[in-house]
Request: fold
Amino acid sequence: MALIAQQLWASPVGDTTVATRKALETVGMDGAASAGRQVAVAVGSRGITGISQIVGECLGFLKERGFHPFIVPAMGSHGGNTTQGERSILSDLGIDEPSMGVPIGTSTAVEQIATLKGAIPVMMAREAAQADHLIVINRIKPHTKFRDLTESGITKMLTIGLGRGEGARIYHRAAVDQTFSILRRAAESIMRRHSVLFGLAVVEDGYKNTADIRAIQPGNWFEEEHGLLEKARKMMPRIPFDPLDILIVDEIGKDISGIGMDSNVTGRHRDLVGDLFEAPHVKRIFVRDLSRRSQGNGNGIGLADVTTQRLVDALDLNRTYANAITAISPEKAAIPIHFSTDRECVKACLETIGQTAPEAARIVHIKNTLTLDKMMVSRALAEEVATDPDLQVVQSWHTMAFDTLGNMEGLAP
Reply:
């Protein structure tokens, strides 16, 4: 194996706080105050770079204009549908009442605010539904489950995120027959009935730097979000080899992707609404650990072929199963075969890829699907590394190493 560096798309905005303020200053809010001053600011569970600074700047902007903002956890079923679980996740992202200087919603109650064609109820967190205005903050990126005009972003936050566990369950069930375009219909319904001041949309480059921050208002909501989605898709980091025999992933988690490891990176996705088979085409996926920030939610482990006993021991099955069932994806919570050591896991992968000898196996080892600027690759990929101008060997070839307990060393962030 050798450690290689991959040159990714870089487009940092610089100071995130300054960029956030510039985006907010494009918003015309002169008439909003007359309609009331309580503003529910929806914040999710993803590990967005600088999210605490972005949220803090948005809250300060609102206070300066005489509004009374408060934070509403908007993370669907992540957090186990409990106040304590949601607050713990936000706190781990640097978002709590002392640091933000505003209250955080203390209820998990939802209420129906509308009904879509087909008798599909539109649900919303009660404290958000009762506020004078709404704001949602989220990262824009390709979704792991579907392809549409908008995918993972502010439309999803406004609907699935603010719908909490019950709303998320309703939308996912309806999408089996009606596709996820239902989220746009739900968002349109919400914006007709509630004052949505804007969505604060964040795009990250290949190195997870903030590349764009945009305040999007209802008048051109879907068009602007789609433009940012295409920008995010272009900058998204990928594994530059196809096909692969084995993909080793140090960690998965909800802070990394909704399904633990991004299927746009791994190429593997199983889902009732349609399987996506994309590059790289991988025979076996071995996942080593669960991210600490995922707080026991191992949704997505079912996309792996092999894992470790330590990951299984770290699972909070209540959170994992609640999330998987809400998303109509019980297969993603299925626990794969698992062993006590990494060595046993690698051996199981090598023995189930066909007649390929270990020394000829095409193997890639990554930290997680968000961190792809460095990765370990096997000698079988040496020629492709040498001919790709975006790749460079930074640590020469050596035998795959295990410690005295039979475990590997993870890649540094």
In short: The chain has a mean pLDDT of 94.
